[in-house]
Design brief:
There is one protein chain. With 362 residues, the chain is an alpha/beta fold. It folds into four domains: 64 residues; 56 residues; 125 residues, Rossmann fold; 69 residues, Beta Barrel (OB fold (Dihydrolipoamide Acetyltransferase, E2P)). It contains 13 helices and ten strands. The strands form two sheets. It has a five-stranded parallel sheet.
């Protein structure tokens, strides 16, 4: 037997007893001066008891197990930050209500006895609502104050300021995979924070019916798993959320503004939107372009021509960092390593391109 059935039985018995008592009282009143058609007291007691048993059997779960189950489900879905904010808001609202209740209780009845209870309920609701709505801002202020205090201490203790830095991760940069290699180098100080809604989007991609999207999502899961196994890379998955916003990119921007932390991404659109709203963006593609080898016209290097170029006679080679090298008159050197002289370096939106010619043609 489950709990709901047991509560139905208890409710049926209790309400049946109450109905029988009411039926007996009503039958006694009616039978003070009974008419010929009046029912005896026993019939009143039986009918009201039967009606009470039926009402108790049907309605008991709506007042016992089902509200308890709804509260339990709500608490299970609520984030730890939301629960803490609601508790603090409830306590704050009750304290404010207590300050107002004393002067209100001095009013004449019935106001003096009813209004304090109404004020307590009202301020408790307002406290919970306000703290829930502004929980990210409140905890952000507390976090910033703690960071500032720890920053003052670090100047004496010699600790690195980046130990308390938080970096938000976007879905695209997790799928890209280069974040794991960058983090291992130590050039990305701070802890990596992955909100639950980003993880949910990654799981949705991994479960996609499209084979390519499914492989990308699974690669992102593997990257996260490898990051969490690295002892020197602090990775946190948080249930923090942004209410009233549906899109993942919009949630990241709002969360970054509230927490005052950068977003790590390689999504061009998210990069532009975040910059327009004053959010710091760490773009992996920009980092990759920045660390590529810097060459100037006249320098020499050795490359292997692997294919023909778009123009007649051109050959195409690639450097170790992926930079494309267009070799003039290089078609005759396909599948050969040759020395070339740099003639021009062109920076485009897609990256850096190098134009060169074979050394023996100079």
């Amino acid at each position: 037997m489950n709990a709901e059935f047991i509560f139905r039985l208890f409710g049926m018995v209790i309400v049946a007893i109450v109905g029988g008592i009411w039926g007996q009282r009503l039958g006694s009143i009616i039978n003070v001066n009974p008419s010929p058609d009046a029912m005896p007291v026993e019939q009143f007691r039986f009918l009201f008891g039967l009606l009470g048993a039926l009402i108790g059997l049907i309605l008991t779960p709506y007042f016992t197990t089902r509200p308890a189950k709804a509260i339990r489900n709500g608490l299970a879905k609520a984030t730890p930050q939301g629960l803490l904010a609601s508790t603090v808001g409830l306590v704050t609202g009750l304290i404010v209500a207590a300050l107002f209740s004393f002067p209100i209780s001095l009013l004449p009845d019935p106001f003096g006895s009813i209004l304090p209870f109404i004020v307590a309920v009202l301020f408790a609701y307002l406290g919970i609502s306000i703290f829930r709505l502004r929980q990210v801002d409140i905890f952000g202020l507390i976090s910033n104050a703690r960071v500032n205090r720890s920053g003052d201490k670090e100047s004496d203790s010699g600790e690195n300021w980046a130990d308390s830095r938080t970096i938000l991760l976007d879905t695209s940069v997790i799928i890209d995979g280069r974040i794991a290699d960058i983090s291992r180098t130590g050039f990305l100080p701070g802890s990596l924070l992955i909100p639950r809604f980003v993880l949910n989007e990654l799981q949705y991609i991994a479960d996609s019916p499209d084979n390519l999207r499914r492989q990308r999502g699974r690669r992102g899961m593997e990257v996260l798993s490898s990051l969490q196994k690295e002892p020197g890379i602090p990775v946190r998955i948080s249930d923090i959320d942004v209410e009233g916003v549906r899109e993942v990119d919009d949630k990241l921007v709002v969360l970054a503004r509230q927490m005052r932390c950068p977003i790590l991404t390689n999504d061009y659109n998210l990069n532009r939107i975040a910059e327009l709203q004053g959010v710091t963006v760490l773009n992996v593609n920009e980092l990759a372009n920045a660390v590529k080898s810097v060459l100037i016209p006249g320098e020499m290097m050795t490359v292997q021509v692997i294919q023909e170029g778009r123009e007649s006679g051109q050959g195409v080679a690639y450097m170790d960092d992926g930079t494309m090298v267009v070799v003039e008159n290089g078609r005759d050197y396909i599948d050969r390593s040759i020395s070339v002289v740099v003639t021009k370096v062109l920076q485009t939106a897609a990256g850096r391109m190098i134009f060169a010619r074979p050394e023996d043609n100079s």
